[in-house]
């Protein structure tokens, strides 16, 4: 029997079309292989599911509301709903993944947790679940990001995590991920690496997508209640590595009538030389163990991306998203720093919600997707803007 | 028999030296290669620099970024190596690098150019075994290039056997957990037990121990359990800040095999 490949399910070796796989040095092979062999069966265990669901409800605060944004709707002459991941404990969707992975790590017998972080939200979410479970936590963060997301550095430390600066390359998310992988190479027995997005070697992209899929699972139920249909016309999410987008798209992937819109960071402009718009600027290549679209020069050296937003400042996208872009299943749009900042002000003033700078990229495309008055547009409000206040002050948004 | 297998016919422990192409100067590659061979290095690995070398520690990372800034790339490297066999006729030469630059250059092109230059083997730590077998093995064989795979203390016995079967050169025994250049922090006896375990498997390929070997003492210790050992970061450190890199490279080799 041949299994028809779907958007949701990669092949056994972790491929979505030509993207995915596990390009890792031998030092990581036993860990990644152990995870590959066990993640699906552990996640299917009733005891795991019970613990995971209970933590999502009582600790994370799920389900998160689906809020009809009436003033944004009026302005853009369409029906806008915001999926309030910003109301998750710790302030972003990232915790959906870390709650699941910490339970997985415990079942794998690991005692030490490492993570990378860009905006600091994944680092905070990891430090949080490590505190909850009494596990040692080390978070790698680029020096540039430690400076621009300072409150999150303090939060991680307060939660008992050690934050280690990554000082190579552009000193951002890519470099923090390199350092986390090197840590894992050096600590192969006791350590689990909680990757923060749908990136990395198989099975991480699928694992993280499954843990974030709760976002679209809830959306369908909430949409049915509020609009009479489980299916909206549009689902919009920002893409750094692509975890909040993967979660928001997941249960709509096989419904072709739902248009999926992935929003990347254009930085100073897609072709300005200071951008992180991977779907436009990237070609197939290998980053952090996955074959995916990658910003690189003609010699295959990875180029330094740029975005004002630390969480989108990454030269690749998850292999699922590379596949969605390639197959035309998702539309990719890129948004500049300036337009994202305008969207921050707009959402704050019209809806009383201060979004994270990453999220603001998704909010900035409402006039660019062609949605009509009868269309339902769900924007995944991936995180809140507290961590970005200093940037907002510096950018003179007041 | 290829140059690599020939080298292992010698009745001595082999010194394998790694250095980064294009470091400290773009044009250093061949002079260093020749100095290493003349000074008595038995096997030489030329590192092809990559922007994000995941398996490497700070020393090789730094040398790679200097090399890239100097303008090193695949085309430049193969240009430099064009007549290298006139200068270094017998010493086995391997290229060590990461998969992405090879993929962008084209695997077939890479193998053809390497073979034309007289390169004997290739080490790509992030090339998965299954992908090698499915997509690369035929190309490597056609160009008579030998792959070298890494084995670590966590590699399972059946996987070691599979690696041994796919190999016709040597097995690269990673000395312990960690990236290149790290010191051995394992409890006493742990490393010996690992080396002994591999030794007891009676594998068909000889073994070289690498990662964290830095001087004569650690070289001699590693050689007790293998046919030789590999030194990289320590050599690169010895090149830092010298104005005569080939001489420094030669002096380093002498300090190990004196
Ligand atoms: C609020 C928020 N949204 C989005 C992202 C981007 O990550 P991803 O693309 O994995 O959702 C981040 C990353 O730090 C974030 O903090």
UniProtKB/TrEMBL annotation, chain A:
The beta subunit is responsible for the synthesis of L-tryptophan from indole and L-serine. Pathway: Amino-acid biosynthesis; L-tryptophan biosynthesis; L-tryptophan from chorismate: step 5/5. The keyword Nucleus does not apply. InterPro entries: Trp_synth_b_CS (IPR006653), Trp_synth_beta (IPR006654), Trp_synth_beta/beta-like (IPR023026), TrpB-like_PALP (IPR001926), TrpB-like_PALP_sf (IPR036052). GO terms for molecular function: tryptophan synthase activity. It comes from the Bacteria. Signal peptide: none annotated. The keyword Amino-acid biosynthesis applies. PANTHER family: TRYPTOPHAN SYNTHASE, TRYPTOPHAN SYNTHASE-RELATED. It comes from Hymenobacter lapidiphilus. The lineage of its organism: Bacteria, Pseudomonadati, Bacteroidota, Cytophagia, Cytophagales. Gene3D superfamilies: 3.40.50.1100. Its EC number is 4.2.1.20. One of its GO terms (cellular component) is cytoplasm. Residues 61-383 form the Tryptophan synthase beta chain-like PALP domain. This is Tryptophan synthase beta chain. It is an enzyme of class 4 (lyase). Its cofactor is pyridoxal 5'-phosphate. Tetramer of two alpha and two beta chains. It holds the Pfam family PALP. The modification N6-(pyridoxal phosphate)lysine is found at residue 94. It catalyses: (1S,2R)-1-C-(indol-3-yl)glycerol 3-phosphate + L-serine = D-glyceraldehyde 3-phosphate + L-tryptophan + H2O. Keywords: Amino-acid biosynthesis, Aromatic amino acid biosynthesis, Lyase, Pyridoxal phosphate, Tryptophan biosynthesis. Belongs to the TrpB family.
TrEMBL record, chain B:
One of its GO terms (cellular component) is cytosol. Keywords: Amino-acid biosynthesis, Aromatic amino acid biosynthesis, Lyase, Tryptophan biosynthesis. The active site is at 45 (proton acceptor), 56 (proton acceptor). InterPro entries: Aldolase_TIM, RibuloseP-bd_barrel, Trp_synthase_alpha_AS, Trp_synthase_suA. Its EC number is 4.2.1.20. It catalyses: (1S,2R)-1-C-(indol-3-yl)glycerol 3-phosphate + L-serine = D-glyceraldehyde 3-phosphate + L-tryptophan + H2O. CDD domains: Tryptophan_synthase_alpha (cd04724). The keyword Amino-acid biosynthesis applies. PROSITE patterns: TRP_SYNTHASE_ALPHA. Pfam families: Trp_syntA (PF00290). The alpha subunit is responsible for the aldol cleavage of indoleglycerol phosphate to indole and glyceraldehyde 3-phosphate. PANTHER family: TRYPTOPHAN SYNTHASE ALPHA CHAIN, CHLOROPLASTIC, TRYPTOPHAN SYNTHASE, ALPHA CHAIN. This is Tryptophan synthase alpha chain.
